[in-house]
Amino acid sequence: MMGHSHAVSGAMLYAVSAPFLPPLLLGTHLRPADILMGTLLAAGAALLPDLDHHDGTIANFLGPVSKLLCRFVAWVSGGHRHATHSLLFVALMGGGTWAGVSYGGRWFTLGMTFFLLAMGLKALNAHVPGHGHHTWITVVGLAVLGTVVLDRFLTDAPGWLPYAVALGTLAHLLGDCLTKMGAPLLWPHKERYEIVLIKRTGNKMETNVLVPIMSVVTFLMLGFAFLGPTVVS
Predict the structure, then answer these.
(1) How far apart are CA 72 and CA 197, in angstroms?
(2) Residue 141 and residue 130: Cα distance in Å, rounded?
(3) pTM for this structure?
């Protein structure tokens, strides 16, 4: 799947589950603002598994810094679609974010917010066209601006942030399981799991069917979060 599709899938999975799963898993009902922020950040988190792809969407979101980071992760994880495309990686991202939020406090929260916003902006093409320095500088500037805005609504240690990161990462894996290459969900076990709906990246099934459906579902669930009966009550 393309980076744009992964981002939309992460946003949708968070928006759909936010009214139901956090009360069960976190013991709390999320505020509408938390659902909106989590949806935005889960879109960015859905790009995290592609940290192993030195030439993918995520490799360019912070210019030379992200390119170097992706090359390092690819070397450590064994290349594209290996360790970072596993349930173990989902657990590491969720657990690592929980530890950062718990012990790093507000500075970690704001740093993670910037990082995820930058990835989401790049994946959704919310920047000036092109691939040069003007592109990633725009992404950085918009991510800084977005972080400043969200800072007004974020608590020091938002309990939903690890959930958003883990869910966005999981959405990426599920998306890749719809392609021919599949994903090694149980890595280091090498078997790849797949139900092929997308025979070629960027085909009509992905861009004209799945992405529009996921986008509509996301906006409907966000509307429900702000206008539904739980908000009125």
Answers:
(1) 31
(2) 16
(3) 0.89
